[in-house]
Fold:
Amino acid sequence: MKVGKLNWDDLKNIIDSSKGAIRNDVKIKSGIGEDCSVIDFGEYECVVSTDPITGAEKNPGKLAVNINCNDIASSGVEPLGILVTILAPENSSLEDIKSVMKEIGEETKKLNVEILGGHTEVTRAVNKMVISCTVIGKGLKDKSIATSGAKEDDDIIVTKSLCLEGTGIVVSDYTDKIKDVLTCEEITEAKGYLNSLSVVKEGVIAGEFGVNSMHDITEGGVLGALWEVAKASNLGFRVYKEKMPISNITQKICRKYSIDPLRLISSGSMLITTKNGDRLVDVLKEQGIEASIIGKIVKQKGILIEGHIEKEVLPPERDELFVLEERII
Structure:
């Protein structure tokens, strides 16, 4: 099998054939594209999400905290606690584990998230460190936002620049090889992208503003996230390539290695759909968060428009990060 997430058909078949009990107090249930599940706790809702870090050699603790907290933020609530599992290979040192936990501690302090517990072990089952986290958040009843909530004619917004995570990982993990592509100043800037991966602030702002759906842009990039939102909502979209916010640094790397930046892992950007996109963009910018309207939710099909050419967006396959790493090596 290819490295990366399972393709949509295989994953859907597994989920559909392996359902457990169905409970009425689970308000948002597991499904393709849903970042979180939401549980009814009376006056409040408990929002939960889990994800591993497997594709990064550097900064895995920082990445693990941010990608999981971002999922909670996509429901429009603030994350409050995290559980951490670390599986370390036999060649790990105690200092390696301490270093990862130091990163996790630093990032959770920034986000006001408490480490609730977890599990740590050395095992022959992995050949490099794997970190898996579960994060919980708390919101008022019936206020959580689902991936599946997009409505026809919604504006589609993305925050900050796309590909922050993918660019930051590649430049941090392969600095020596990337020197042929970027200047020293650009390498420093690209490594700094990993300090901008949190979308908690914009998630909470959008939740308070009132939006129809949100989705953290991770594996599969912005086109993968768009496809998942549309599929979950039984709708389509029309988006414009020239409106996608992508830094010059990311574009240089993608051109060099023939990578599609629209399918490159993009934690650090939130995908939001709302009826009043212009106003939300203004609200976000007032809070220091850049945002761009890239298109509209429509009734049928997902379409990417580049110049005068329209292409249907197909289900996400493995992320371009894995292709990029193969080509650099």
Remarks:
- Residues 94-111 form the longest helix (18 residues).
- The radius of gyration is 19 Å.
- Residues 226 and 237 are 8 Å apart (CA to CA).
- The domain at 147-328 is CATH 3.90.650.10 (Phosphoribosyl-aminoimidazole Synthetase; Chain A, domain 2).
